[in-house]
Amino acid sequence: MIALHAVAAKTALALPETTCSQPFGEGCDVFKVMDKVFMLSFHLEGKATINLKVLPDNGTMLKDIYPFIRAGWHMNKQHWISVFTDEELEEELLQDLVLNSYELVVSKLNKGQRQRIELLRSV
């Protein structure tokens, strides 16, 4: 079984302009790009869990396919999913979900912020 929090954090922190803080106290890491949240990392029901932003249709599809993906805990259920640690969860899927959440948030940033991120990616 993969280490959900470690893999998700490593994936997120490798992306340009990503920061991690604990505004809600210890036990909940909040990952942001340009001050916009794209991932939360915490424990729920005794399991390592992350919340990720998704397009509504993608979130519905993911919840239908994977039993370890549910509606986002304490978030807008249409735009967020919760991913729980599970033997079936593959590292590649987790990395893709984190990247997709990041990209979704980046797509909503202003033009200058998006250009800065593109420049940092090309370095």
Automatic annotation (TrEMBL):
Gene3D superfamilies: 3.90.1150.30. InterPro entries: YjbR, YjbR-like_sf, YjbR/MT2646/Rv2570-like. It comes from the Bacteria. This is MmcQ/YjbR family DNA-binding protein. It comes from Acinetobacter amyesii.
